[in-house]
Amino acid sequence: MLKKIVILLFVTCFACFNTVFAAESGGMPQLNPEFWISQIFWLIITFGILFIVLTKVILPKISDNLETRKSQILENIETADKQKEESQKKIDEYEKIILDSKLKAKNYINEAREKILDDINKKRAALEKDLDEEISEVEKELSDLKQKSGEKINKIAAETSAELIKELIDEEVNSSSIAAIVEDQSKINRERKDV
Amino acid sequence: MASNPMYQFNVYRIGPEIKLGSVDISFTNASLFMVISSLAILIIFNLGAKKKTLIPDKLQLLSELSYSFVAKMISDTAGSKAKPYFSFIFSLFMFVLFCNMFGMIPYAFTVTSHIIVTFVLAAFIFIGVTIIGFMKHGLGYLKLFVPSGVPMVLLPLIVVIEIISYLSRPISLSVRLFANMMAGHTMMKVFGGFVISLGIVGGWLPLSFSVALTGLEILVAFLQAYVFAILTCIYLNDALNLHH
What is the pLDDT of residues B110-164, one digit of tens each? Predict the structure, then answer.
């Protein structure tokens, strides 16, 4: 489109100006073959030299440089990848260590807790046993005491009543008869209490 | 007469007349700009290729970008088989581009605005591509003129059209570049002439047009070099790969 417009404009301009300058311009200088051979000659020489020098000297250098850059970049990427892998490995290792130590810590805690619980249980059992023993001892003592207290009370009561009788009537009473009476009385008392 | 828009295309002798036998091969302004363009290319790319640093400087970047640009263009249009012709297409592209660009400098001569120059380049490409085609495929290269999937009735007509289009390649290739360059430069000259003739009062419009045209012409200069190179690649693709 652009080209068409340009060429159209050119054609109109050319048509106008060709009539204006027809006298002094001999048409298009491009169509004047006077220097055609010279242009071809110099084109071949300059373009030939350009082509040869570019092909033999300059382009190989540029392509070499591009290749080295490419390989360098590839190498760098490779090393970067390698380092990334290594760091990943190290991270994995580190995480494993942390996990292990966490597990270990948990184990330690569990062990310690079990030990302590064991200790506590053992001590509690021992304590309970002691307590039980003591309680049973005391109960035994108590029951002993209860049993003995009756006899003692009877004895004391017999003695007291013997002395009281002596004081009251100034006479020695047979202690065995007093004891029998006291015994009877206490038996009655006990029965009454039981009822 | 300097105000003639065609005057800028005049070729004149610089220095003494050189004759090879009876043929005039004198050094002209056209030759001068061919030499300047080639030297500029060689100097720029040599400086760009000299330093081999990992991180390129400006000239190195320029040369490497041009290298990869042309390489990509060739591999996109003609495939990997065209690699041996890389340096030729690179030289061609750079030569046309620099000649076009040097033509944009005021008072400079545009080498590619002469049909004889573009025609010689195009004819060289045409002959070279034809030789490559026949060397690669032998007489099978003639299959290029017989597209597949065409009904038998139409075949004679199609073959004739194909042959004509093939033979007109050098003409279309050369005239495209030559006409674009000549048209652009003539237009700029015409608008420049308008600026003078309309003077300080009315000259601003053509002047602004001239400025815009300069930008357009720089674009065209690049574009035509690119088109020239890419068409060469396409012709080369036909010769190398032969699928129509």
Answer: 999 999 999 999 999 999 999 999 999 988 888 888 888 888 888 889 999 999 9
- Report residue B155 as tokens: 């075949």
Range of the domain at B70: 7-241
**Tokens 């500029």 appear where?**
B40
Distance, in Å, from the CA atom of A36 to the CA atom of B25, rounded to the nearest integer, reads 9
ipTM: 0.90
Over the stretch B154-207, which tens digit does the pLDDT of each residue have?
Answer: 888 999 999 999 999 999 999 999 999 999 999 998 898 888 888 888 888 999
CA distances from A137 to A132, A148, B88 (A): 8, 16, 122
B134 within a domain of the structure (yes/no):
yes
Q: Which A-chain residues 10-49 have CB contacts (< 8 A) with chain B? A: 10, 13-14, 17, 21, 24-25, 27-44, 46-47, 49
Query: Can you tell me the distance from the alpha carbon of B43 to that of B39, in angstroms, rounded to the nearest whole number?
Result: 6
Asked if the structure places residue A76 within a domain, the reply is: yes
Strand, coil or helix: what is B146?
coil
pTM for this structure? 0.72
Q: What is the pLDDT of residue A41?
A: 93
Domain span including residue A93: 59-194
Residue pair B110/B5 in contact by the 8 Å Cβ criterion: no
Hey, are the CB atoms on B86 and A57 less than 8 Å from each other?
A: no
Residue A35: inside a domain: no
Q: Do A66 and B68 touch (CB under 8 A)?
A: yes
In a domain, B178, yes or no: yes
Establish if B1 belongs to a structural domain: no
- Number of domains composing chain B: 1
B2 is a domain residue = no
Say if CB B226 and CB B70 are below 8 A apart.
Answer: no
Q: Is residue A132 part of a domain?
A: yes
Phi first, then psi: what are they for B20, rounded to 5°?
-110, 100
The total number of structural domains in chain A stands at 1
Mutant choice from B46, B87, B182 vs A, greatest count of A C-beta within 10 A: B87
First-to-last CA distance in chain B?
Answer: 51
The per-residue pLDDT for A179 is: 76
pLDDT (tens digit per residue) in A56-107:
999 999 999 899 989 999 999 999 999 999 999 999 999 999 999 999 999 9
Residue A40 in any domain: the answer is no
